[in-house]
Structure formats: structure tokens, C-alpha cells
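C-alpha cells please, single chain.
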Amino acid sequence: MINYFTQPYPREPHSLRQKLLIATGSGIFVGIFLIIFQPFGASNWFDPHKNFYLAGYGMITFVVLLLVTGIGPLLFKNWYREENWTVGREIFHTLLIIVFIAFGNLLYTQRINISSIDLPSIIFWVGITMAVGIIPASVITLINYNRLLRKHLTTDFRVKGHSAEASLPKQLTLMAENEKDSLTVSADDLLFIESANNYSEVVFWRDEKREKKLLRSSLSRIEEQIQDAGIVRCHRSYIVNLRQVENISGNAQGYKLQLKNEASVLPVARRYGDLVAGYFRK
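Here you go.
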């Protein structure tokens, strides 16, 4: 179990719209659940506005989720980077949200004069929230980890050699934004292209030497210039020549591509996983 906690785990940053949808859905679920089932003694609470007050706990969930998922990644960027994300961090992050919701519930409960803020109340609310959340949070994360790990197992992949057609000389010309600077390289000799702020760094072989050149252009613009089924976008920061792949490995975060005679291991983002997998499964 300890080894599980240190294993890589996918973390795809959500857009503001996605965060709003997740927070809204969670808040509505909590409110409806409390109104219908009335757990933790709520059924013994008699007040003409009880359903309205119970719905308020759903609002607490909505606000906490939006704040934690919105502000946390902005304040602690390195901690939230996907390459640093693990099963343990995912569980901790989920439990952190649960604890914040517990304190929000406590403050709200005190505000509507149901409970006071003291040590027993804090222990009670945090204890209930943790008891409700820790088991499903851990189990769901571990199940999802194993599902993603099985998905990215690479036993059915076959690294391809160059076919006669693929080995024919084919020149690839990449143009910078100023329409003046350019680079022409054999498509077979291209290794990968990496985003570098406002530039794209092209890494390739020339006369059996590894070379690289910066072009002032976004990676998306470079991608539009490439018409080659073997050279594809694999990550928001990388375009890779799949014919140069020597080995493929996988973990819960996705596939990793080891290139021939190259120390760099390129990640494959989940959105490009099926594209890359399809190439090697043909």
C-alpha cells in the first residue's frame, strides 16, 4: 500500500468552466442528499426553514471546491505539477478538500445557531467528514490508478522499423512566424520539437550529429506545417517523430516514449494517448 502512494497519478488541470460544473454538481448532490435522507440527527431537527438550511451545506461544498481547486494550483504551482503528482497527493488533496468542507460546515452550523465553535464541535465535524470521506476517497483513487495503469500497459505495442516507403527521403520545412527564418530537415531525422516559451526548439540528426535549432513560433503553428502521419503532437509541450521511438513504457499518468540514441523520455498526455497507441498497434 505504501508503494501505491508514491506511484505517478494523472492530474489534468481543469478549465474554469469544468471547475464550475464539478463544484456545482457536487454542491447540488450534497444539498439534495441531506434534504432527502437527513442524516446525523437532521431528522430530529424541527424548523420551518430546515430544507433551506440543509441546502446551505451544499453551497458550502460548492464554495470550498471552487476555492481550493481554483486558488490552490495558482499558489502552489510546483506542488500541483502533473509530473509531481502521485496517488498519495491525490488522496491528500481530496482529504484536504474534505477538511475544509468540514470547517465550512462548522462555521455555517454556528451561524444558524445549531452549534457553537469549540473543540468538541471541531472534533465532531472533522471526525464525521473524515469518516465519511476517507474510505471512498482512498478506494476510488486506488481503483482509478489501477484502471489507468492497465490501460497504459504496453505489451501489445510493437515498435516499428522503417518500411521502404518510410525510408524514402522526405524533406520537412518549418517556417518561423516572420516567414523568413526556416529549417529544412529530413523527416526521418527529426527527433522531436519542444515548446520553449515563444519559441519551438527543433531537435534532429544531421550528418550523424544531434543538433537543435530555435524557431520563433508556437508549437501549434509548427504542428500545422507538418503533414506526416508519423510526426504528431503527443503533449502540450512536444511534437514527436514516432519513427524514432525505441521503447514505450506506461504508468497511470500515460505513456512514456524513449527515443533512439536519445536520453530524453517524452511524455504522452492523455488526450493524445489513443493517437499514439493507434500508431503502434496498427
